[in-house]
Each structure stands twice: as structure tokens, then as C-alpha cells.
């Protein structure tokens, strides 16, 4: 009784990745500009006007820094905190592919559909190895889960919007030894 689910992250097949990199570079260049501009205005104020403080200079510097912080927070939010709803068809396109697992006979008398390699380090990790159509696949444990027993999905795979009826049908068809590969891709906007 083995159900093996592979969750693959989709990729944006658009120029948005390139645009994002350009925006990050622009924000870094803007930071360099701010530092140079504040330094230049401050030196000019001290040498030409013989003043150490003016409200005009301080407010201009404050506006530049606030603009930088707003742009940085916006980019951080879009790059690191964007977690789209997998059922939101307006943002992503998703598909599920089902493939039967091939029984691996390792020659040592043991056979298995999936082998789990665990790293015993400070931060533990797992890697699943399995065969489909004669090809060997290795998937990190963060992108896959194994379901045993009568339940088709385990706890970590519950977040993926699988169709329970289709999974039950594939359970029957592949004798509870199959891979369900979920792929999500951002839509072009």
C-alpha cells in the first residue's frame, strides 16, 4: 500500500524573472545613488553655506531614504513572501500527471518501489529514489511525500489540490504504487 506523490514547483516561463532581477539591481544602484547624493549635498552645504544642518537637505534625504525603503519592502514581499493559492486559476496553471512506479530489485534480495535516503546531520533531510519507465529519479523530501495505508494523501500532501476521486481510481489502476506529479506554473500577465 504505497502512494508516492511528487510535488514539483512550477517556473515562470516569461520575462518576469529577468524584470525582477533588473528591479533588484535598480534598487541596489538607487542605494548607491542615495549615499553619494546625501554625501555630496552635505559636503556642499558645509563648504559653501557653512552650515551643518538645513531642513531642506534633511527632508530631501528623508524622502530619498523612505522611497528606497518602500521599494525594498515591496521587492522583498514580491520575491520572498509571494505564496499563491494553488487553487487560484487566475494566477497559476496546474496539472497532475500519474505514472506507475517500477519495482526495483537491488540484487540483494530486497525489492522496493521507493527508497528513502536520510541524512543524519544537524538539519535532517530525506531524499526519495524511485524508478518510472526504467529511469531513476531522485527527489528531495521537501518536494515529495510518501503515503502509506488506506489514506491516499498524507499530511504534507494535503495542501496540494489533488482530486480525491482520481487518486482513488489511480490507486486501483496502479495497485497503490504510483507517482502523482503536480506541476504549477505562473500564468503570463
UniProtKB/TrEMBL annotation:
Keywords for the protein's UniProt record, in alphabetical order: Membrane, Transmembrane, Transmembrane helix
Transmembrane segments: 15-38, 59-76
InterPro entries in UniProt: LVIS_2131-like
Domain of life per record: Bacteria
Name used for this protein in its record: Uncharacterized protein
Amino acid at each position: 500500500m504505497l502512494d508516492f506523490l511528487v510535488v514539483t514547483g512550477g517556473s515562470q516561463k516569461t520575462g518576469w524573472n529577468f524584470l525582477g532581477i533588473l528591479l533588484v539591481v535598480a534598487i541596489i544602484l538607487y542605494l548607491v545613488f542615495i549615499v553619494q547624493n546625501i554625501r555630496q549635498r552635505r559636503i556642499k552645504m558645509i563648504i559653501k553655506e557653512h552650515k551643518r544642518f538645513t531642513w531642506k537637505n534633511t527632508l530631501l534625504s528623508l524622502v530619498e531614504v523612505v522611497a528606497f525603503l518602500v521599494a525594498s519592502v515591496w521587492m522583498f514581499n514580491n520575491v520572498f513572501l509571494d505564496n499563491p493559492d494553488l487553487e487560484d486559476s487566475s494566477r497559476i496553471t496546474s496539472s497532475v500527471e500519474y505514472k506507475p512506479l517500477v519495482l526495483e530489485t537491488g540484487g540483494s534480495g530486497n525489492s522496493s518501489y521507493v527508497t528513502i535516503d536520510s541524512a543524519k546531520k544537524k538539519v535532517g533531510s530525506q531524499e526519495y529514489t524511485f524508478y518510472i519507465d526504467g529511469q531513476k529519479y531522485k527527489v528531495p523530501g521537501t518536494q515529495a511525500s510518501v503515503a502509506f495505508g488506506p489514506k491516499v494523501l498524507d499530511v504534507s500532501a494535503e495542501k496540494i489540490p489533488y482530486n480525491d476521486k482520481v487518486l482513488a481510481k489511480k490507486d486501483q489502476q496502479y495497485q497503490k504504487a504510483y507517482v502523482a506529479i503536480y506541476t504549477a506554473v505562473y500564468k503570463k500577465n
